[in-house]
Automatic annotation (TrEMBL):
Annotated keywords: ATP-binding, Cell membrane, Membrane, Nucleotide-binding, Transport
Listed name of the protein: ABC transporter ATP-binding protein
Similarity field: Belongs to the ABC transporter superfamily.
Domain of life, per lineage: Bacteria
Membrane topology: Peripheral membrane protein
UniProt xrefs under PANTHER family: DIPEPTIDE TRANSPORT ATP-BINDING PROTEIN DPPD (PTHR43297:SF2), OLIGOPEPTIDE TRANSPORT ATP-BINDING PROTEIN APPD (PTHR43297)
ABC transporter domain segment(s): 14-257
Protein's UniProt keywords contain Metal-binding: no
Organism, scientific name: Microlunatus ginsengisoli
One Gene Ontology molecular-function label: ATP binding
InterPro entries: AAA+_ATPase, ABC_Ni/Peptide_Import, ABC_transporter-like_ATP-bd, Oligopep_ABC_C, P-loop_NTPase
SMART domains: AAA (SM00382)
Keyword Nucleotide-binding: yes
Cellular localisation: Cell membrane
Amino acid sequence: MNAVHGSSVAPGLLEIDDLHVAIGGVPILRGVSLQVENGTSLGIVGESGSGKSMTLRAVTRLLPKNATVSGRVTVSGRDVLAMDAAALRRYRRSVGMVFQDPRSAVNPIHPVGSFLLERAKDSNADLRAARERAVATLRRMRISDPEARMAQYPFELSGGLLQRVMIASVLMERPALLLADEPTTALDVTTQADVLALTDELRRESGTAMIFVSHDLDLATAICDRIAVMYGGQVLEEGPAAEIASTPKHPYTRALLASRPDLDRRLPEIRVIDGAPRAASDAGPGCPFASRCPVALDRCAQLPPPATAGDHSVRCHRIAEVDAGILDAELPLRVVAS
Ligand SMILES: Nc1ncnc2c1ncn2[C@@H]1O[C@H](COP(=O)(O)OP(=O)(O)O)[C@@H](O)[C@H]1O
Ligand SMILES: [Mg+2]
């Protein structure tokens, strides 16, 4: 045991350190570092193409064959990138995964119950006990008449209901880590909020940590402990969710927050960030947001900005001026309904 730190320094559940992923030689992730502590939730947020899904795929090594990976991914101290096939299979089974389209994860010709029972049996060999457990989990997910639901086919359930069943079935196994990639994006807005609130409740009860991937910063800050903002295959800002919501620092994060539709006022128009999102593959050596940033200087496109130290970390050459409030007139500000 380390004499200085002793046992008080618990390793994080998931540590991603300087992760680079290229596909067919094209850089997709460029130095992603993230941590997730046991039982906590991290939201990964950013526009389409920023590398959110690729980060999750790298965590489970579900990458295309022509991908090259460098850096480190450890889960409970185990090196994921070094696992052999058998260890990788065991590890993947221990991670819960939920995707945008629940219909892609179920077999349409079997009733919902058979899928649930298969999962419940893994940890409970007694069929009756497994059935009770499946029904209890559905009830816990506030799915009415769970016994009848078990006999229904996926096509008989709405998208929201089926996604709730999927999430319930994954959390039933109490995984240490849940990876949820836009799990509610296909659902309508009111259903989204319900499903997420329930997911978070069950996750907390079972001590499951979560990475919640979303393009919606407001949604992510509402349910996650911490937020990482990604753009062009990099993490540009990372910190406690409440701070990211109240004091966003990176110009990109501020643009994301200002561009959201103002739901309070129900304004019809959606303000957007100027310019198109940039893929990591055509970003230069500097900050990937430089070409769209309202306060970019020459060096922003040329030199990679270092990450600031501390609990709320930002990669921006102009962070000192942002912190001093000097750039407020040039930077987007969150629109607050009066
Ligand atoms: N199989 C693939 N082959 C080549 N490029 C890919 C592949 N999958 C994703 N990409 C590229 O990687 C980048 C990041 O994609 P992704 O992680 O899916 O973004 P996000 O989930 O943030 O929308 C995008 O530019 C995308 O075009
Ligand atoms: Mg994605």
